[in-house]
Amino acid sequence: MTLQELEEFLSRWGKERYRARQLFRWIYQKHVDDFAEMTDLSKELRGILASSCRVSGFPAERVETSVDGTEKYLFRLGDGEAVESVLIPDEGRRTLCISSQVGCPLLCGFCATGAAGFRRNMTSAEIVQQACFAAKRLAEREERLSNVVFMGMGEPLLNVPEVSRTTGILLSQFAFGISGKRVTVSTAGIVPEMMPLALGYPVSFAVSINAARDDLRSVLMPVNRKYPLKEVVAAMRRIPLQSGRKVTAEYVLLAGVNDSAEDALALSRLFRGARIKVNLIPFNAHEASTYRAPEAGAVDRFRDVLIAGGVQTIRRERRGADIRAACGQLRIAAGGKRG
Ligand code: SF4
Questions:
Q1: Which fold has domain 3-52?
Q2: Which of 337, 295, 319, 325 is CA-nearest to residue 112?
Q3: Which of 188, 220, 264, 268 could bond to 302 as cystine, CB 3.0-4.6 Å?
Q4: From the CA of 189, how far away is ligand 1's center (Å)?
């Protein structure tokens, strides 16, 4: 439940609205899931809650830790499906990459999740519990979850109601209290959903671009046939931004496919004058794909062409390669559904 939903829920029992804020603090900030321990609630309310509600939660079925500190969690959901999250520690930041769907229907050619097919949307409870698990784990070592990215399994903008509710909880000062700047919704470019979410929450947006031409993008990302580059880039240009902020364009570099200097030049032309920065991601090779990782020289050349074209460009380091940290890989390795 969002804070507002919880307030309405409690008001049906004649309870004050601030009780919802107390509950949020217990659940999300103190990581307490037993109502009996919520000592600033009245005994009567604790009794009512204990007899009719439960704080849902699930531990990770599997935790893998990379030599670089990246942690990957595999969660088994109530119906036997599996999803995964990745926690990436980085110079003061603790970023959790969460899933919003079980599998993904968009079938991007380079993606392990897409290769495994689509099962269902996740509920907001299932999505937020990934953050609860990581936050509790971090609290045990006196660290704090600082950033959340919807970059795990699934397309968040195909599950907007549940993703919006989760975002409300992540941003709430009574729950995770993460600023919108530090919550990033990563989309393949579901154009009609981008603006409503941007107007509802001041989150950051990352859009998977991966090609500067429609013919190539349609091969890599079939969703391009529905929402072609021109519409996607126009939507990125329209997103309201606070001063100094930019929309991120994600670009997975695939050897010999989209990593040439010509591709970089075309990309810089596409983004000319826009408040867009490019995040270059050298492909993480995996068993479900025949694409190959680019040479280091090709990555540098691509970046240099973009920068020369006036486009701010960041190169994301490969993290957790030894624990299959690219989206969908652990789930495939674990078997999608048990039984
Ligand atoms: S890259 Fe993202 S949008 Fe594409 S299939 Fe994979 S999970 Fe879905």
A1: DNA polymerase; domain 1 (1.10.150)
A2: 325
A3: 264
A4: 11
